[in-house]
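Box 3.1 A note on notation
Throughout this textbook, protein chains are presented in two layers. The first layer is the amino acid sequence; the second is a token string describing backbone geometry. Keep the layers aligned when reading.
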Amino acid sequence: QVQLVESGGDLVQPGGSLRLSCAVSGRTSEYLAIGWFRQAPGKDREGVSCINSSDGSTYYFDSVKGRFTISRDNAKNTVYLQMDNLKPEDTGVYYCAADFGAFPLGRLVRLCVSGDMDYWGKGTPVTVSS
């Protein structure tokens, strides 16, 4: 079992920055893929970024490439999402998700694109508005 708790969501102006955190507890010694996903009001959930907690390999969706950075601190069992140059279309509830297993980059990408992860947090809201 894995428990995920997101934090860091807030109201921010366009062009601003936020850092989201995902605290991971439970089977943290296992190989994990951690992903960030978001859902805007009235829209389907979409992927943001994923990371392999073992080797640090990452994947970003086109909508956030060059603006968002995913990272992990295994000593703190925490995954971060640094979000810069935020746009109104980044508004939504941001969820952290996890899955166990070995995730070479190709498999990480397929997992991230499908969003088919076993464990999910409750989300943290991000609003980008002037």
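The chain has one helix and eleven strands. The first strand starts at residue 2 and ends at 7.
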